[in-house]
Write a structure and sequence with these properties.
The chain has about 475 residues and is an alpha+beta fold. The protein contains 14 helices and 19 strands.
């Protein structure tokens, strides 16, 4: 029997959402972009989360502590789903093992930490590093220095805790109403008109947060127009502020809207496929990337974006050395226009296809724009054309999830080693300095060989109509709906 929830009618928000599908199309096992990631961070809690200051803290469990090298999470009655299911240590263990069984996390594989080499086929199969004793979830990393790295990985939405009763026998999510997060799905829709509702039984619940969120379908361009037309009230951080409508919204922000701004960690880049790397030379890829970047910088008007030649910024984890930066700058300085036997195909969004086609008219021998029928990140790796554009997170700290994502989706390519082997080698290094050097060298290898071409770096922005305000951390991407408040 469902519990009826009464919400204050004036605490509703309409949020733009660039999908026109049912919530059933999404799963924490297959998160591929910011919109899906943000959805699950609001629907589900985790073992651990970041606070406003960028420090890790316990989320769904009552308590976390170290016992020797083991991670102990004690569960109580801290979080209850809307229909009364208390989130337990068993729920957490099943969710982690579910991830290991299907081996589909885009943000790193916790099997490396807890049961490397083991093949789990069912929930009843044992993972040596996962144990439930009463109300305690005990995680036992196979190496002592893995503990802090495992904590970093567990913060990601891939490792959301899903109530066991919300899963079927095949471990597929069948109930999006009973969730462990601050919101649940009150109404689904096959065309993306999904309604989220706040869970008053959650420990993060507040009467001042939005009680209902209506998702309004649109693409990343039209969402800004929907905002100006008063058809939505909230634009999440996944929607880049690009185009005339976005510029108008951002320029009027102080008077009519409240704007959340992160540190500059949003990187616009061009990503080449393995086919393009095999067929075209480094000089050809640099030439095409620079032509594409010229259009992005001069025609798209990304708000507060700055040019960048690197993915990780100077003096952050994976940032280049002075020598590497100088060598990259020299390599990118092409002295002549390379010859092409056929053009490099670049995937372009439908909304911007005409703009890019006109801009590439002088490069007909070098560039062939391809109209995109879906989000570039929705494409499987083998389905990608020669090059796709994407916006990806950088980071200011050692982030296992980010490293895992960049490897799994081949933002960074590891031609000398299979990508999982590279990650195993990275984890095996006990010294953070040694791990940073390995990541720095991978970063450099991908830039100097034009496997990936960063173009712009900017903050992430979210915009909400007044009197709503943001209380979100500036250190991370994502829109925490429970941290949007009415005065």
């Amino acid at each position: 029997m469902y519990t009826k929830i009464n919400s204050p009618s004036n605490l509703k928000l309409r949020m733009g959402f660039p999908y026109r599908v049912s919530i059933k199309n999404f799963d924490t096992l297959s998160i591929i972009n910011m919109f899906q990631y943000g959805m699950f961070r609001n629907l589900y809690g985790r073992l651990i989360r970041y606070n406003q200051d960028g420090q890790l803290m316990v989320d769904l469990p009552e308590r976390f502590y170290w016992q020797n090298a083991f991670l102990i999470f004690e569960f109580g009655k801290k979080v209850t789903t809307v229909d009364g299911h208390v989130i337990t240590a068993e729920d957490a263990a099943i969710s982690l093992k579910r991830n290991i069984i299907y081996k589909r996390s885009g943000h790193g594989d916790i099997r490396n930490f807890l049961c490397p080499g083991q093949e789990l086929k069912t929930i009843d199969d044992a993972c040596e590093g996962i144990e439930v004793v009463g109300n305690k979830l005990i995680l036992k990393p196979v190496k002592e220095h893995y503990g802090p790295l495992l904590l970093s990985a567990l913060e990601n939405a891939d490792y959301s805790i899903i109530p066991k009763n919300s899963l079927d026998k095949a471990l597929k999510i069948i109930d999006y109403r009973n969730t462990s997060g601050t919101y649940f799905v009150a109404k689904d829709s096959t065309i993306g008109e999904i309604k989220l509702q706040a869970n008053p039984k959650h420990y993060l619940y507040s009467e001042k947060m939005p009680q209902e969120i209506d998702l309004v379908p649109g693409d990343v361009i039209s969402i800004w127009n929907l905002f100006l037309e008063d058809k939505i009230d909230l634009i999440s951080t996944g929607v880049p502020p690009v185009g005339e409508a976005a510029q108008l919204v951002m320029s009027n922000g102080n008077e009519q809207y409240n704007i959340h701004k992160s540190i500059p960690i949003s990187v616009n880049l061009l990503l080449f496929s393995k086919e393009a790397i095999t067929e075209f030379s480094v000089e050809q890829r640099f030439f095409v990337a620079q032509a594409y970047a010229g259009v992005v910088k001069t025609k798209l008007n990304f708000y507060e974006a700055q040019p960048t030649e690197t993915f990780f910024r100077k003096h952050t984890n994976g940032g280049l050395s002075d020598r590497q930066e100088a060598e990259l700058k020299s390599k990118r300085n092409l002295t002549k226009r390379p010859a092409f036997n056929r053009p490099i195909e670049i995937l372009i969004s439908n909304a911007r296809f005409e703009l890019f086609s006109k801009s590439f008219s002088e490069y007909s021998k070098e560039i062939k724009p391809i109209k995109m029928g879906a989000h570039s990140t929705d494409l499987k790796i083998h389905e990608r054309p020669h090059a796709i554009s994407m916006i990806n997170d950088s980071s200011w700290l050692e982030d296992m999830g980010l490293i895992g994502y960049n490897l799994n989706f081949e933002v960074f390519k590891t031609f000398k080693l299979e990508k999982n082997k590279w990650f195993e080698n990275y984890l095996a290094l006990e010294s953070k300095e040694d791990r940073n050097k390995l990541l720095q060298d991978l970063h450099y290898e991908n830039l100097i060989n034009a496997y990936v071409y960063p173009i712009l770096v900017s903050p992430y922005f979210a915009v909400v109509k007044k009197p709503w305000t943001f209380n979100m951390s500036t250190l991370h991407a994502g829109t925490e709906l429970w941290n949007i408040r009415i005065p």
